[in-house]
Design goal:
It is a single chain. The protein has 256 residues and is α/β, with parallel strands linked by helices. The chain has a single domain (3-247), classed as 3-Layer(aba) Sandwich (Rossmann fold), CATH 3.40.50.300. The protein contains nine helices and nine strands. It has helices at 16-29, 45-60, 79-87, 103-110, 123-126, 143-157, 177-194, 207-210, 231-247, and strands at residues 3-7, 34-38, 68-69, 92-96, 114-120, 130-132, 138-141, 164-170, 197-200. The strands form two sheets. Strands 3-2-4-1-5-8-9 form a seven-stranded parallel β-sheet, with helices on both faces. Helix 7 links the parallel strand 8 (164-170) and strand 9 (197-200). Helix 1 packs across helix 2 and helix 4 packs across helix 6. The radius of gyration is 18 Å and the shape is globular. The two termini are 25 Å apart. This is ATPase. Pfam families: MipZ. It comes from Paracoccus hibiscisoli.
């Protein structure tokens, strides 16, 4: 069966769609068949990215590696038919969840083999995972962590495997080192209590956003005529390599 990756967080602006775009494109460029589902039925950033990629390739006559974009079905369970369709043709399926609590997002978490939760590196985003006292003591899991716990329980009852949960610290700044250490310490303590791994995510780089209108990522630059990589491009590429390595996906060897 396909390995299902869910990118989830109940807070907007944390980098979910950026993560989805780069993970699916990286896996496709490494030769894996990849399917994608955008569960944010209003904003659809991930879905539009894949549509932009197909349109750009058609317009320019290019044959870039292409994740398959599936559409949700109708009826009370729109997710299952779409997953069944993708599982027939894909090694990996990525589900990009909305930045809010929805039934679709709940369903997606129960089918996740790998869960990626991007967070901006601040206590505002940390509050989604845990409640803290004014002096920095972790009091207990918060709304999103409880939802993941419920998803894990449902998977266990169904005899499915565990969820490998990775929390990404996005937009790690070079300044405000005291806050950075405090967030890092709180995440390390919480990870042991509720069972997730922590890894650095993406920095704030223009390259992660500027290629969106054409459905491209920095891995596509040479194929579209960019021969020279800037230092920022090289650093961004390494961040993506580190993320793919940290995901520990089955059968994946990094080749970019």
């Amino acid at each position: 069966m396909a390995h299902i990756i869910v990118v989830g967080n109940e807070k907007g602006g944390s980098g979910k769609s950026t993560t989805s775009m780069h993970v699916t494109t990286a896996l496709a460029r490494m030769g894996h068949s990849v399917g994608g589902l955008d569960l944010d039925v209003r904003q659809r950033s991930f879905g539009r990215y894949l549509e932009n990629r197909a349109a750009f390739c058609a317009r320019m006559g290019l044959d870039l590696p292409m994740p398959v974009l599936a559409q949700l079905g109708d009826g009370p369970d729109p997710l299952t038919p779409a997953l069944e369709l993708l599982e027939k043709q894909c090694d990996f399926i990525l589900l990009d969840c909305p930045g809010s609590h929805t039934k679709l997002s709940q369903m997606a978490h129960t089918v996740a083999d790998t869960l990626i939760t991007p967070l901006n590196d601040s206590f505002v985003d940390f509050d989604l995972l845990a409640r803290m006292s004014p002096d920095g003591e972790v009091l207990g899991p918060s709304i999103y962590a409880e939802m993941v716990w419920n998803a894990r329980q449902l998977r266990a009852q169904a005899g499915a495997g565990p969820i490998d949960w990775l929390v990404l610290r996005n937009r790690l700044g070079t300044q405000q080192m005291h806050n950075k250490r405090k967030v890092g310490g709180a995440l390390a303590a919480l990870s042991k209590r509720i069972g997730f791994r922590v890894a650095p995510g993406f920095s704030e780089r223009v390259i992660f956003r500027e290629l969106f209108p054409n459905g491209l990522t920095l891995l596509d630059l040479k194929d579209v005529g960019t021969e020279t990589m800037s230092m920022s491009h090289i650093a961004a590429r390494q961040e993506l390599r580190d993320l793919i390595a940290e995901l520990r996906l089955p059968g994946v060897t990094i080749t970019f």
